[in-house]
Amino acid sequence: MATEIFNSKSLAVQAQKKILGKMASKSIAIALIDDTSSDVLDELYKTTKEYTQNKKEAEKIVKDLIKVVIKLGVLYRNNQFNKDEMELVEKFKKKVHQLAMTIVSFHQVDFTFDRNILSNLLNECRDLLHQIINQHLTAKSHGRINNVFNHFSNCEFLAALYNPFGSYKASLQKICNGVNKMLDDKNI
């Protein structure tokens, strides 16, 4: 008979992931994230809902985003990543920073937007995230990541979002203001 080792920290991390996964809603997100991030999420929801013409789908995409971020944070704060995974986490952080800078730059500098560049950056972030969480989260979490990134990296969505004459102009301004503030505050 194999000896099972009881690990309370591992059990606590599993419980946190499970509880936070079940509770991922806007009210929980507001309690766990700052106002700027909340404002950006609100605008992402609004643009997604308008683009998809589907409230449930928009809610699911944003809820999946919140769940993934919360679970990643739980794993990170509880030192659950090994050395190789930590190297991937650092690479992911740099890639997200590059993505944020690109999002803002494409908005601020006329005629620089390239949906393929933005889509590729989002897909690189997705791929790194899959590698980071591979040993820690379930296939369901991998599906959530795909759901989020498949939507936001969609070139047609990005083209609509960045259309200077489109209906998302005000939302894009708010998203970029928020992302810029997060960059200034070194939260990205």
Question: Mind explaining what this structure looks like?
Answer:
This protein is an all-alpha fold and 188 residues long. Helix content is 78%, strand content 0%. The chain contains 9 helices and no strands. The chain has helices at residues 8-23, 26-32, 35-52, 55-77, 83-108, 115-133, 139-152, 155-162, 169-184. Helix 1 packs antiparallel against helix 4. The longest helix has 26 residues, at 83-108. It is globular and about 50 Å long. It starts with 7 loop residues before the first helix and ends with a helix.
Helix amount: over 70%
Instruction: Please provide the count of β strands.
Output: 0
Largest sheet: none
- Which outline best applies? globular
Low-pLDDT ranges: none
Instruction: Calculate the mean pLDDT score and round it.
Output: 88
Indicate the topology:
Blueprint (H helix, E strand, L loop, with lengths): L7 H16 L2 H7 L2 H18 L2 H23 L5 H26 L6 H19 L5 H14 L2 H8 L6 H16 L4
Helix pairs in contact: 1-4, 3-4, 3-9, 4-7, 5-6, 5-9, 6-7, 6-8
